[in-house]
Amino acid sequence: MRPMARRARAQLRADALDVAAELFVGGRFGMPELAARLGVSRQTLYSEFGDRQGVASALVLRATERFLDGIEAALARERDLHAAWVAAVAAALRRAADDSLLKALLTGDQAVFGSGAEEIVVAARDRAAGYLRRQWPELDAESVGLAAETAARLTVSHIVLPLAPPERIAEQVATAVVRIARGPGL
Amino acid sequence: MRPMARRARAQLRADALDVAAELFVGGRFGMPELAARLGVSRQTLYSEFGDRQGVASALVLRATERFLDGIEAALARERDLHAAWVAAVAAALRRAADDSLLKALLTGDQAVFGSGAEEIVVAARDRAAGYLRRQWPELDAESVGLAAETAARLTVSHIVLPLAPPERIAEQVATAVVRIARGPGL
DNA sequence: GGTAGACAGATCTGCGAGAAGTGTCCAGAG
DNA sequence: CTCTGGACACTTCTCGCAGATCTGTCTACC
Q1: pTM for the whole thing?
Q2: B154–A156: do the CB atoms touch at under 8 Å?
Q3: How far is CA B41 from CA B5, B22, B37, B54, B56, in A?
Q4: A53 touches strand D (CB under 7 A)
Q5: Where is the signal peptide (chains A, B) (predicted)?
Q6: For B136-161, what is each residue's pLDDT tens digit?
Q7: Is the residue at A186 inside a domain?
Q8: How far apart are the first and last CA of chain B?
Q9: Which residues constitute the domain of residue B17?
Q10: Residues of A in contact with B175 (CB under 8 A)
Q11: Is residue B69 part of a domain?
Q12: Average pLDDT of span B116-129
């Protein structure tokens, strides 16, 4: 509860997840090696994360949140709805391209812990909906929900199965999302 | 070249793929067992399909075409654009639900031969675009392309990761596709 | 708090023998 | 002319088994 202890704990968690991510992409992710690399005893890890799955879950959670934070930042950086989505999708594609853990979670190829794809899609959809409601309150509520889910699913789809250059994908997804968000039309 | 020979060959291919699909979902797909179940020699199989991969490719190809034929039939059965897509997506979800081979191809979980997902998405997109161009020629060409790709990707996404009952998914995808197909709007 | 060590039990690894499958050949039957 | 059955070399599963490693927990210690 003391500042030092809390800081040390948070730092340990952060370091542990950094190393765990490294080990994971390397294919070997075990508690003994994780502890050794951190210069800490196995027990400390078990105390902090409960068990191996706890480390894995925390790792997935952090990767997801960082991913979505980056996307939301890109969204917020633009004022035009279409431009915002172009930037967001482009950011998502970029991150997915050079984050092995994220790519593994989304494509599900490596033996990842809890698939992860579902959590990411759900979280992305909810964040996108929140952003739209907040930034464009005049949009129809149902359309916002549909646009958010479509944005999340289309982006993941293009990460898993890219058929066009990133810029083109971003443009296409953005156009689709904007047209859906615009509502029934008449 | 004689009718009898051609018919026998076609029948053999069809039977072979039926049995191959059975063996595949059962997890054991080998040339000796396939030949035995067909009451034919292995050599005949190799003559007809070239090699094991040839059987696999033919199997995937047929599954894909049947899948898309079913969807296109559902599309053609409705006159309203929205209703047509509701029916098509519902048909796709239904088929994917009770066709193990198809589901394996799309989700990529079982060790399928050539992933298959890419071929399916591409073929679905192209067929959807063809249908839209043919049936709704007044639609903007670029919008049709975008709507077709979105329809294909969203449907696959909802098959791989279903988060809502099929009827709701069909309704959502149809709404999204129609709004995209409608064009820039103004 | 944290460490080091020990512990039973599960899980992974390497390995070799044996079985099975792959792809190709050919002689022979219908 | 097509299909069969058998043989062939080669590669790829499979299975058992021993040894190593990992997991999760406990205890003594600092």
Answers
A1: 0.93
A2: no
A3: 17, 19, 10, 16, 18
A4: yes
A5: none
A6: 999 999 999 999 999 999 999 999 99
A7: no
A8: 58
A9: 1-50
A10: 146, 180
A11: yes
A12: 94
